[in-house]
Backbone:
């Protein structure tokens, strides 16, 4: 996938995931882009693992199912980031 497709997929899936998850995630468009790209890798890897049973680092293409998988991965990334960034006293 070329760089323009990565940017589009990252921005689209990151923005949708931020709109779905309640709360304030903060950040600007670059954070949303990185969230979407990380989400695409998380979602693609989990989807490949469920389909084949092999753990491979993959990402979906720029298509409707690919955006859906990337959004699910971005939601997981937001949740994991929330768990890691909490302060415990």
Residues:
């Amino acid at each position: 996938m070329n760089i323009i497709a990565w940017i589009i997929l990252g921005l689209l899936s990151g923005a949708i995931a931020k709109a779905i998850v309640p709360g304030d995630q903060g950040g600007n468009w670059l954070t949303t882009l990185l969230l979407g790209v990380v989400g695409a890798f998380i979602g693609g890897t989990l989807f490949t693992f469920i389909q084949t049973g092999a753990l491979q680092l993959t990402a979906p293409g720029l298509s409707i199912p690919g955006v859906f998988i990337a959004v699910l991965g971005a939601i997981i990334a937001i949740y994991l980031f929330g768990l890691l960034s909490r302060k415990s006293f």
About this structure: The mean pLDDT is 86. The radius of gyration is 13 Å. Helices lie at 3-20, 29-52, 64-85.
